Amino acid sequence: MEKDISSGLNSETYEKEHNLIEQIHRELSGLDMPCTCKSELDRTIVAIEAWRQRKARKELVDSIREDYHNLVSGISFLTELENIDRLELTPEELYDHAESLKFLADLADRCADRLVGLSTISKIMK
């Protein structure tokens, strides 16, 4: 199952795109082109791939940072649950807290997926 990790980017898609660029590079290297064209093409492909990796990494880091701040804010909203035995929360308040926890769980899951994507990109960049 693929999951969104940043603006439609996911680790499986990123790896496929990376492999496609490598395949294009291999196919072009087999063509009978002058050395200068091959060298320029190689440099261009390497530069494009490096740019894509930096862009994807930045998008993921920004998303992870945003998720972190949202998680911290959301958890601070739930602090009254620490004293749930002494508070008289209405059914609506209890329901709202339950929904907040579900939202935070989804947010944490998405953040974890983005961390996996960042790990994948970091492996490729090495």
Number of domains: 1
Say how many strands there are. Answer: 0
What composes the largest sheet? none
Beta content comes to under 5%
Question: Total number of helical segments?
Answer: 3
Overall 3D form: rod-shaped
Q: Which stretches of 5+ consecutive residues score pLDDT under 50?
A: 1-8
User: Which structural class best describes the helix and strand composition?
Assistant: mainly alpha
- The run of helices and strands is HHH
Give the mean pLDDT.
83
Q: Helicity level, as a percent range?
A: over 70%
| N→C terminal distance | 26 Å
Q: For the CA atoms, what is the radius of gyration?
A: 23 Å
Q: What does this protein look like?
A:
- The protein is mainly alpha-helical.
- It has one domain.
- 77% of the residues lie in helices and 0% in strands.
- It contains three helices and no strands.
- Helix 1 runs antiparallel to helix 2 (35-77), helix 1 (11-29) runs parallel beside helix 3 (91-125) and helix 2 (35-77) packs antiparallel against helix 3 (91-125).
- The protein is rod-shaped, with a radius of gyration of 23 Å.
Task: Please outline the helices and strands.
Blueprint: H1 11-29, H2 35-77, H3 91-125
Task: Briefly summarize what is shown.
Helices cover 77% and strands 0% of the residues. With 126 residues, it is an all-alpha fold.
